[in-house]
Specification:
Layout lengths: L2 H17 L3 H37 L14 H6 L7 H14 L2
């Protein structure tokens, strides 16, 4: 059973449950559901990043910065194994994003 089918079943269940509850219960249920969906999305993105890290290991480029081509420090890789940038390049990227308002 795929994740989309599972989500469809969950949505139908929530919709059926919502119709039989008072407004406060519905709001709480919807809030819980939204939180769960955000968690699932974060997990999905993390799994994708892990798969990309494994591919970089297989390709022999794990630990090499995408930005400058230099080595990513072991300390940074231990803290964030899915990273693709050294701390200097990541800091520079975040400053640019902040200036652009992203």
């Amino acid at each position: 059973m795929g994740i989309f089918f599972s989500l469809q079943i969950d949505i139908l269940y929530v919709l059926g449950t919502i119709q039989n509850q008072d407004p406060n219960d519905r709001a709480s249920l919807e809030s819980d559901r939204n939180f769960e969906l955000r968690i699932r999305d974060r997990e999905r993105r993390l799994l994708s990043k892990i798969q990309e890290a494994i591919k970089r290991i297989d390709d022999g480029v794990f630990g090499i910065c995408d930005g400058c081509g230099g080595q990513i420090s072991e300390k940074r890789l231990m803290a964030r194994p899915v990273t693709t940038q050294c701390i200097e390049c990541k800091t520079k990227q975040e400053k640019i994003e902040k200036l652009k308002g992203e």
